[in-house]
Amino acid sequence: MTSETDPHPLPAPRPDFLLGAALLAVAGLYVRALMFTPIEARQGAAQKILYVHATSAIVGLYIAFGLMAIASILYLWLKDEKLDRVAESSAEVGLCYMTVVLGTGPLWGKTIWGAWWTWDARLTSTLFLWFIIVAYLLLRGAVEEPGRRARYAAVLGILASLLVPFIHLSVYLFRTLHPMPIVLKPSAPSMPAEMQRTFFFGLLAFILLFAALLRARYRMATLRDLAAHREQEHG
Amino acid sequence: MTPDNGGFATAAYIITAIVYLGYALSIKLRERRIRERLARLDASARPPSSRPAGA
Lengths: 235, 55
What we know:
Low-confidence stretches of chain B: none
Shape of chain A: globular
Largest sheet of chain B: none
Helix content of chain A: over 70%
Radius of gyration of chain B: 24 Å
Structural class of chain A: mainly alpha
Radius of gyration of chain A: 20 Å
Strand content of chain B: under 5%
Oligomer: heterodimer
């Protein structure tokens, strides 16, 4: 497709083995959690929502939005467009994870609290962060000049990530219905060993899925920028 | 007594699968659209002599 002198050759499409492996790992989690992990006596089978809800929250909040913040800070310093693409990709994948968190949480809440939703500090701040990330992606679509778009997005991305420690600490700072952390806390996880194994297996599966989605999203952003570059060249 | 609420867990796992698979698919579809756009750009930028006869 491209000439030998092309400075931006188009990478050929190839099978995404990492994404395939990640989806297989998540499928393995489904089998392990639903068929081979014991049911919690007081909460019933709904407690198994933990293995997709809390694991997605850890990856979305701490890994995806943490990476978005680091890449945004580094972009403002180094002005490297690759860092802007990492921040953008991480934000979008993180939004996908937080959509799962906000979609599965009410199902668990309904069985334990008797209510789909409550406006407590943890839930409200998580929903607020979700809207800020939506605004971050809308902002990226609204600003045409690449340098200004990356700069504005980096600032908003850094500000959004400041909510993450607040969300983590909200259950300690406020009276909330949401339970305290069962894994991300100074003492040992408060779960039987078999449930812990399923939980950490799920966490690894969702980290692998995050890596695969991030890589795919980054590659897409690179191709999009290449297309924009070529369109500019051709007028 | 253990409550019978397996339907909620099933619903949560289905939602999770739909969101992640749907998102992965959306990335692949967007990438395909961009590749087609790039192919069109390459074809229009190529000099007429290098185009196949009849094109």
